[in-house]
Amino acid sequence: MPQHDKGERSDPRQGGALMITGYDTVFITGAPVDAGIRVMLEDLHARWPNVLVALGGDHVGQFRPWRTTRAQMPAGAGEVYVARDAEMERRWDDLGYSLSEHAEGPSAVLYEFASQPAVEIQLNEDPYERRGVDIDPYPATLVTAGLSLVTIVTPDADSLSSRGLLHALRQALIGQAQS
Length: 179
Prior knowledge:
Layout (H helix, E strand, L loop, with lengths): L2 E8 L7 E12 L3 H15 L4 E5 L7 E2 H4 L8 E6 L2 H10 L11 E7 L4 E6 L14 E6 L4 E7 L5 H19 L1
Antiparallel strand pairs: 1-2, 2-9, 3-4, 3-5, 5-6, 6-9, 7-8
Helix pairs in contact: 1-4
């Protein structure tokens, strides 16, 4: 179940300057995250042929065309910043995670191995998929040992563009977990 947060954080693309990030959605997965992100970006590249990507871990590199960076995806932990084209990258520097006049915006995917072996969560849906059974939210423990935390940052939660990115990453991670 994704977790959502809208807040502030240091953006290494901005030299560590504090900026409003946008809408954070967190996935917890056992899938190989780098492979899932690669699948998501291939899907995005089909719609945005000039997509630019900045990759990094401790240091984030320059934006480059996806077709030249696809083989350099950091394994295990990393950061991936995504802009439709050079115009969106320039706009991002000025306006942060915001939607353009075409209702599209930049995004980032930050991922790392879970540092805690378990976390307490609240289930709002029946994880057993019993049809027709209403449940009240209840506590559970998620064993995160061996799992990765993946945060995708989008301009908002509701635009078609942001929902499309969230769906693409979710499906890519599910596909990688099942393969």
